[in-house]
Amino acid sequence: MARTKDSSRGCLSVVIPCFNEENTILALLTRVLAQPSVGQVIIIDDCSTDKSAEIIKAIKDKRIEYTRNEKNSGKGFSIAQGIKSCSKPYMVIQDADLEYSPEEYPRLLAPLLDGRADAVFGSRFLTYDSRRALYYWHRVGNDFLTTLSNIFTNLDLTDMETCYKFMRTEFALKLNIQERRFGLEPEITAKLAKMRARVYEVPISYQGRTYAEGKKITWKDGFRAIYCIIKYNLIVRAKSY
What we know:
InterPro entries: Glyco_trans_2-like, Glycosyltransferase_2, Nucleotide-diphossugar_trans. Residues 13-170 form the Glycosyltransferase 2-like domain. With 241 residues, the protein is an alpha/beta fold. It has one domain: Spore Coat Polysaccharide Biosynthesis Protein SpsA, Chain A, CATH 3.90.550.10. The chain is 34% helix and 16% strand. The chain contains eight helices and seven strands. The chain has helices at residues 25-33, 52-57, 75-83, 105-113, 136-153, 169-172, 184-194, 219-235, and strands at 12-18, 38-45, 64-68, 90-93, 119-123, 165-168, 199-203. A seven-stranded mixed beta sheet has the order 3-2-1-4-6-5-7, sandwiched between helices. It is globular and about 45 Å long.
């Protein structure tokens, strides 16, 4: 079905988990709010100890909904809470750093808007644009985890660990995310596969940051991801799908 240019206006809920991102949160929100497709921005502050909250509260835009966790509970917990508040037809998870570009929302939304997809993953390894060359062993680990996930889900993905996971909100509300940290990526992928969601991949640019610049993922998260791939594909049988 053909779509008009304005059909995507305000159709997207953006869920942003935030923990100590005072150096990037203003620039990130400025770019997110500039996207015509964005109708709701849900920010979950995971008990930041820097000026993140102060910066966020100073932005006057009715689309912003700010909440703060009672205690530091992890990215997965924050995203699970944010999803509950999504009110637009589509949603996306957006990290509070500047590694992913909100300017690419239109390309990632396209398969959803034209009815081809239920979920769209932004692949950093099908990139059509610039990509910062960083940690080789991270890439090896990502390839391994994506392949292992593909074996269980039978999805032919190139980047299961990507932050950019767009989906129909009706699917997101059924996820019931349990993981507190980065194990949520294989958890979401496994649950979407079990729901028989139509999953597409779209190439994206990627401006990764170093640990000195604030990157938080560690080798321990890699081992947790392996556990989560097995757990959510073989062990967990949620009643909701």
